[in-house]
Amino acid sequence: MINNIESLDKFISLIPIIKLSIPADLSIAICDLERFVAYFPGDTINLNINEGQPLHKEEPLYLAIQENRTLKSDVPAHFYGFEFTGTATPLHDQTGQVIGGIAVQIRRQSELKAIVEQISESLSQANEQINNISYGVSSLSDHSQELLIQSQQAGKDVENTTEVLSIINRVADQTNLLGLNAAIEAAHAGEKGRSFEVVAKEIRKFSRETVASTQNINKTMLQIKGITNQMANSIEKIAAIGQEQAASVQHTSTFIEEIKIMSQKLNEFANKL
User: Fold this and answer.
1) Which Pfam families match (predicted)?
2) What is the pTM of this model?
C-alpha cells in the first residue's frame, strides 16, 4: 500500500517530487504521532505550520492517526482566510504500525466562484434592463409606425381638401360669371332691372370673396401639406432608427445570454475545483 513506508524521513524526501508531479497548487504536512515534522506550503495556500508544532487533538490529522483511517473535510474560509479541501491519511511502517500521518490541502477556487456568480448576477440584471429597453424601443417603433400612417392619412386629407377648394373655386368663378351676365341683363332692362342689378352685384361680390377665401385656404393647406410631408419623413426616419435599435438590442441580449450560459458553465467548473 502507498501509506506503508520505510521511514518518515525517506518519505519526506519524496514530497518535493510528489508536489511537482501533481498539476495542482497544494500544501503537504507530515507528522509523527505527536507533532509536525515537515511542511511544504503551496504558492497560494499556506497554513503556516511549523516544524515541531504539536498536533492538536481536534485536528483531522490527529483523528486520522488515532482512528487509523483517511479523513476528508472542506475547511471554510473564515478559518484561514480562504477555502480549501483537506485530506488526512495515517502512515504505516512495513509492519503496518501507524508511525505518523500526511495531510494534503488543496485550495478551493472560492474567489473564482464568487467572481463568476457576480458576473452571472450582473449579466442577469443587464439582460433584464436590455429587455426593458427592447420593449421600449419596440413600443416606440410601433408608435412611430402609427404616427407615420396618421401623417400619411393627413396628407391625403389635405389633398382631398385641396380638391374640394378647387371645386368651390370653380363654382365661385361660375357664380361670378352668372352675376356678370345678370348685371348685363339688368342694365338692358333699365329701371325695371335696378333691383335685380343690386342682387347681381352682391352675387359677384360674394363670388370674389369666395375666390379670395379659397385662395387663402388653399395657400394654408399647401403649407400644412408641406409640414405634414416633413413630419412624415421625420417619423419615417425615426421608425427606421427604432427598428435598427430594436434589432441591435436583440442581438446584444442574445450575446449577453450566451455569456451568461458560459459563466454558468464556468461556475460549475469552479465548484469542481
Assistant:
1) MCPsignal (PF00015)
2) 0.46
* Fold exhibited by the domain 8-108: Beta-Lactamase (3.30.450)
pLDDT at 27 over 90: yes
CB atoms within 10 A of CB 25: 14
What are the residue boundaries of the structural domains of the chain, listed by start? 8-108, 112-272
CA 264/CA 267 separation, integer angstroms: 5
Please tell me the predicted confidence (pLDDT) of residue 53. 94
Q: H-helix or E-strand containing 86?
A: strand 84-92
Average pLDDT over residues 242-261: 72
Query: Which residues are registered as beta bridge partners of 36?
Result: 31
Fold of the domain spanning 112-272: Helix Hairpins (1.10.287)
Q: Which residues contact 36 (CB under 8 A, 6 or more apart)?
A: 29, 30, 49, 50, 51, 52, 53, 55
Q: What's the CA gap between 167 and 161, in Å, rounded?
A: 10
15, pLDDT greater than 80: yes
Straight-line distance from the first to the last Cα atom of the chain, in angstroms, rounded to the nearest whole number: 27
Cβ atoms within 10 Å of 200's Cβ, excluding its own: 21
